[in-house]
UniProtKB/TrEMBL annotation:
Residues 465-581 form the Response regulatory domain. Gene3D superfamilies: 1.10.287.130, 3.40.50.2300, Histidine kinase-like ATPase, C-terminal domain. The modification 4-aspartylphosphate is found at D514. It catalyses: ATP + protein L-histidine = ADP + protein N-phospho-L-histidine. The keyword Phosphoprotein applies. It comes from Caballeronia zhejiangensis. Keywords: Phosphoprotein. It holds the Pfam family Response_reg. One of its GO terms (molecular function) is phosphorelay sensor kinase activity. Residues 225-443 form the Histidine kinase domain. This is histidine kinase. The keyword Phosphoprotein applies.
Length: 588
C-alpha cells in the first residue's frame, strides 16, 4: 500500500490538468498542437488551458499574436477568472507580443527563443511554481521562415524533455497549407481535435494532404491567371488616357474626362490588388525589404496620393507634428500601402466636407502615428472583427462607400511584420475613428541619395530605340503612340519570334515585353535576347499581369532587368527609359 501511495503521489506531481476536455491530464514535456479558425476558437481553447495551470500553481506565459493581442488575451482571462488579478499580482502569468518574443531584434533566432523558454522555466521554479505552461501562435510566421521554424520546433521537443514545461502551439487554419497540417501532426505530442490511432489515421491524413496540395496548386495557378487577365485591359486604358491628356488643352472637357477615367482606373487597381493579394498577405506569404527610411516621407507620399479623392467630396486632410528625424527599418512600398489604405478608409467613410488628421508622436524607442476622422466610427459589434478579412460596416444598397473589407486586414499584417502594431482606439464620445500605427524606431540614419538618382525623375530628352512586345494590340498601340510623342524610335512585335528578328537589326536600347504570350513566352524571349551580341547592354523590362514573388524571381533568372506589373503608369514607363539612358551612358 505504501508503494502504491508513493506511485500515486508521483503521478499526481507529474500529470497536470490540461484544461482541454479531449485530453484530460498530461505530463510535463507535452507539446500540444491546436488548429483554430476564429478568434473565439482560440479563446475557448486557451482560457481553460491557462485556468488549469493557474489553479495548479504553474507559472504561465501567453505569447500573443494574430487575432488575439496582449490586451485581448488578458481581458479574456479577466472575464473567465474572478480572481485573475491575484494571479497577475503575484507574477504567476505573463503576456508577451510575438514580436518581442520570437524576433525582438527583427530576426527570428531559434537558439535565443529556446534559451528564453528555459530561463522562464528555471525562474518559475525558483519562485515556488511547479513549472511553466506556455502557448505560442504561428500567426506571425511568414512562409519564407517556415523551414527555419520547423527546425526550431524539433529542437523544442528535445528541450521539453529536460524541463517542466507544457506547451501549446496554435495554428490558424486560414494560414496553413496542407503540408503544414501534416507537419504539425508529426511534431506534436498531442493533436487537439479528432484523435485516432494506427496506420489508417495516417493514411487518411496523407491522402487528404495530397488532395489539398493539388487544390492549393490549382488555386494558385488560377489566381495567377486571374491577375494577368484582369490587369491586362487596364494597361492600354492607362496609356491611352495619358496620350489623350498630352494631346488636348489642360482645361478642355477632354482633359477633364481623361482625369476621371484615370482616377477610376487607379481605384479599380487598388481593389484588384487587394483581392489578389489578400490571401497571400494575411497568411504572411509576402516579402519585405526593410531599410532605414524616414517615416514622415512615406506619410507625405500617402497623403499626397489621397488628397485628390478627398477634395472631390470637399474633405480636408491635415498633417500635424511629423518628426522629420524619425527613422524606422521599413519597406517603403509596403508601409505606403498601409497609410494609403488607412487614409482611403478615412476619406471613404468621412462625411462631405469632413476632416482627417494625421499626427505623429516619437518616444521610448517607437513612433506612433494616429489617423483620426470625423466619420461615423466603427459600430461596437464590429470592433473586435474590424481587422478580419471581408468585414465591413452596414452596406447600403447604393454601395456608395465601396470597398471589399480587405485593406485593414492586409495593413495590420504588414505593420506586424515590421515589429509594430495597428490598433483601433475607442471613441470617448461622438462619432469618429482613430487608427494608431506603432513602429519601432531605428538609430540608423537614412543614407543620402547619390546625385545621379535625381536624373531618374526627369524624362530623357534624347531619342532611344525602344522595342515593344505584347500579344495585345491595344497595349502595343497605346505604348507606341506614347513613346513616339516623346520623340523615341519605336518598333513593335506581337510575338517573341518576330521580336527576335527585329532585335537583330534594330538593336533596341530598351525592350518592354509581356510574359504571357503564345508560342514563345517572355521568359524565353528574354533569354534569347540576352544571347544576341547587339542586346548585351539593352535594358529588358517585363511588363506583365503576373505579379507574384515567384513570377519576379523567374523574370530575374531569365534576364529581365525590371519586372513591372500592369497597369504601369506612363510616367513610370518614361522614367524607366530615362534611367536606361543613363545606364547605357555609364556602360559605354
Amino acid at each position: 500500500m505504501h508503494d502504491d501511495q508513493s506511485l500515486s503521489n508521483a503521478l499526481q506531481q507529474t500529470l497536470r490538468k490540461s484544461g482541454i476536455d479531449a485530453i484530460g491530464h498530461a505530463g510535463w514535456e507535452t507539446h500540444f498542437c491546436h488548429f483554430y479558425e476564429t478568434r473565439q476558437d482560440l479563446i475557448d481553447m486557451l482560457v481553460p488551458y491557462f485556468e488549469a495551470g493557474l489553479r495548479d500553481n504553474e507559472s504561465c506565459l501567453w505569447v500573443a499574436s494574430g487575432p488575439i493581442g496582449v490586451e485581448e488575451a488578458e481581458t479574456a482571462l479577466v472575464e473567465a477568472l474572478p480572481d485573475f488579478k491575484d494571479y497577475l499580482t503575484r507574477g504567476q502569468i505573463t503576456f508577451k507580443p510575438a514580436s518581442d518574443w520570437y524576433y525582438p531584434s527583427g530576426t527570428f533566432r531559434a537558439d535565443h527563443v529556446l534559451a528564453e523558454w528555459v530561463r522562464h522555466e528555471r525562474e518559475s521554479r525558483a519562485h515556488g511554481f511547479e513549472g511553466l505552461r506556455v502557448t505560442g501562435d504561428t500567426f506571425w510566421l511568414e512562409r519564407t521562415r517556415w523551414h527555419k521554424f520547423a527546425d526550431y520546433e524539433a529542437h523544442l521537443n528535445r528541450t521539453l524533455g529536460q524541463y517542466r514545461i507544457i506547451c501549446v502551439c496554435s495554428y490558424c487554419m486560414d494560414r496553413c497549407t496542407a503540408s503544414d497540417v501534416l507537419y504539425a501532426t508529426r511534431i506534436s505530442s498531442h493533436l487537439h481535435g479528432e484523435r485516432a490511432s494506427g496506420s489508417s489515421c495516417k493514411a487518411r491524413v496523407d491522402a487528404r494532404t495530397r488532395d489539398l496540395e493539388v487544390l492549393l496548386k490549382e488555386r494558385d495557378e488560377f489566381l495567377s491567371m486571374l491577375s494577368h487577365e484582369l490587369r491586362n485591359p487596364l494597361a492600354p486604358i492607362e496609356s491611352a488616357i495619358e496620350v489623350i491628356r498630352r494631346s488636348v488643352p489642360e482645361q478642355s472637357p477632354a482633359a477633364a474626362a481623361s482625369n476621371i477615367v484615370k482616377r477610376q482606373v487607379r481605384n479599380l487597381l487598388v481593389i484588384l490588388n487587394d483581392l489578389l493579394e489578400a490571401d497571400r498577405t494575411v497568411r504572411g506569404m509576402f516579402s519585405i525589404d526593410p531599410v532605414p527610411v524616414e517615416l514622415s516621407a512615406i506619410i507625405d507620399e500617402a497623403v499626397d496620393a489621397m488628397r485628390p479623392a478627398a477634395a472631390q467630396n470637399g474633405q480636408t486632410v491635415t498633417i500635424d507634428g511629423l518628426d522629420r528625424s524619425a527613422t524606422i527599418a521599413g519597406d517603403h512600398v509596403r508601409l505606403n500601402q498601409v497609410f494609403v489604405n488607412l487614409l482611403n478608409n478615412a476619406t471613404t467613410y468621412a462625411p462631405p466636407h469632413g476632416h482627417t488628421d494625421v499626427s505623429m508622436v516619437v518616444g521610448d524607442g517607437e513612433v506612433r502615428v494616429c489617423l483620426s476622422d470625423d466619420g461615423p466610427g466603427v459600430a461596437e459589434p464590429l470592433r473586435d472583427r474590424v481587422f478580419s478579412l471581408f468585414v465591413q460596416g452596414p452596406r447600403e444598397l447604393d454601395r456608395s462607400q465601396g470597398g471589399c473589407g480587405i485593406g485593414l486586414a492586409v495593413s495590420r499584417q504588414i505593420v506586424e511584420r515590421h515589429g509594430g502594431s495597428l490598433t483601433l482606439e475607442r471613441a470617448r464620445s461622438g462619432r469618429w475613428s482613430r487608427f494608431v500605427v506603432t513602429l519601432p524606431c531605428t538609430p540608423h540614419p537614412v543614407p543620402a541619395q547619390p546625385a545621379a538618382d535625381h536624373k531618374l525623375a526627369r524624362p530623357t530628352t534624347l531619342s532611344r530605340r525602344i522595342l515593344i512586345v505584347d500579344d495585345e494590340p491595344d497595349i502595343v498601340s497605346a505604348l507606341l503612340t506614347l513613346f513616339q510623342m516623346e520623340g523615341h524610335e519605336v518598333r513593335t512585335a506581337f510575338d517573341g519570334e518576330t521580336a527576335l528578328e527585329i532585335a537583330k537589326t534594330f538593336a533596341p536600347q530598351v525592350v518592354f515585353a509581356d510574359i504571357g504570350m503564345p508560342r514563345m513566352d517572355g521568359y524565353e524571349l528574354a533569354r534569347r535576347l540576352r544571347a544576341l551580341p547587339a542586346n548585351a547592354k539593352a535594358t529588358i523590362v517585363a511588363v506583365t499581369g503576373y505579379g507574384t514573388e515567384s513570377d519576379r524571381e523567374r523574370s530575374e533568372q531569365a534576364g529581365f532587368d525590371l519586372h513591372l506589373v500592369k497597369p504601369v503608369t506612363p510616367p513610370a514607363l518614361l522614367e524607366v527609359v530615362s534611367a536606361a539612358g543613363d545606364e547605357l551612358a555609364n556602360k559605354s
